[in-house]
# Entry
Amino acid sequence: MDVLGFIDLPGWVLTIIIILITLYLYSLWYHSLWRRLGIPGPRPIPFLGILPRYKQGLAKTDLELINTYGSVVGIYHGHLPVLLVSDPEMVKEIFIKEFSNYTNRPVPFKMDEHSAFSVGTAKDNHWKFLRSTISPTFSSGKLKLMVPKIQRCCSNLVENIKQQSKQGEQVDMKGVCETFTMDVIASTAFGIDVNSQNEPNNQFVKHAKAAALGEIFGPKFFLIMMFPILKHFFTIHFMKKEAVDFFRSVVESAIGLRKKGQEVYNDFLQLMLNARHDDKQSDYFTIGDLKEFKNRGLNNSEVKENAVTFFVAGYDTTANTLAFACYCLATNHDVQDKCLEEIENICHGERPQFEDLSKLEYLDRFFNEVLRLYASAVRIQRGGKQGITVKGVYIPKDVDISVPLYALHRNPTYWPDPEKFDPDRFTEENKAKRPDYAFIPFGVGPRICIGMRLALMEVKMALVFLLQNFSFSPCSKTEIPIELETGGLIRAKNGIPLKINNREKP
# Structure
């Protein structure tokens, strides 16, 4: 084929050239959004956006982007636009004042029908119904009833560490904390004794670890990033099928036992069962007004899927946070001594009770500082149903609004010398100097982490038990600073090995 009278190209070559030019223009068009809106950000790579930057890890990338471009940064995951917002006033506007518009988490693909029943991913009135039904599990009265079970798990944690440290070897606190939190979530939420701490290859822990390895970062998701129209055709699973099937079978067995037995349960599963309606209804009923939802009660799929969500989420995030807390104790001996002194003054050598936890003010400041540096999630997200303007910034609908917690919690404007570990940042005097939403480790607004109160009680109870029995120190294998995994959760890539020293009982 003669091109402009100068070059004679075969037809197939010209076709390829036209396709490549078309694809390039297609990519340029998708990547023009933030430039047109005047929002700063890095120059995207055609079709990839900023994905190659994530080789260094999501947390480090967010920190780099915020430090370079400011508190509002426009980026692209492939061709999917994402707005990073770390301005506390904008966070308040979006997550609280405009919550009716930003009710939902952005999901840029078709969910499998089971995922749609989880309180973490449900939308609009369906989410409101699930949230209002499940939330009473975490009232002060219900949490107090869980204390004996948590105390038993804490005692097992102490014995587990004693056994592992007998040989004089370092103890990987990440692994130890994982088995502990699995025991807690199984016993307090489902009345099941799984004994993870005494069984290194426990099936519950094995499947909980595997559950997070779904299809979120698989080939289908990357195709959607590059060609967003495919989101209407590809179904993606949040969690690995084999793991989800295991936990579903566990929940079904627990439900079956409750139907036969006479024991009274006051836990997460029982509350859902009490709200369940056994009459015939669609198992994929996720739309309707709030009154309609309340009239029908929970269906079987909602009971099972929220139970599975609690198994996985309650295990992993809390385990990571407790392990990081032990690391912070080991690398800050002055802080460790202050925590122990307060515990002795409040508990007098006895096991902590529910009422004691609220009196441990320094331990609370310590734990907040742990959460500042090592909040479980790197980002929290919302998606808008309509485009709105916030503080002079226009945000189109359906855009992923992501708050980069790792970067927000290290912003020197709010946190001088941000890498320094200092619990006194959380004295009442110092908190008054910061914007309210500069510290949001569990999220913010009506969709804040539903299990937050249980997680706080569980970790603080464990820390008291641990400090009553041990002191922590770095060992030859302890990384300072810790190398983090590169994904969306804050995890220690190589574990958290520490030296454990037994405390002498008076």
Remarks:
- The mean pLDDT is 88.
- The two ends are 94 Å apart (CA to CA).
- The longest helix spans residues 300-330.
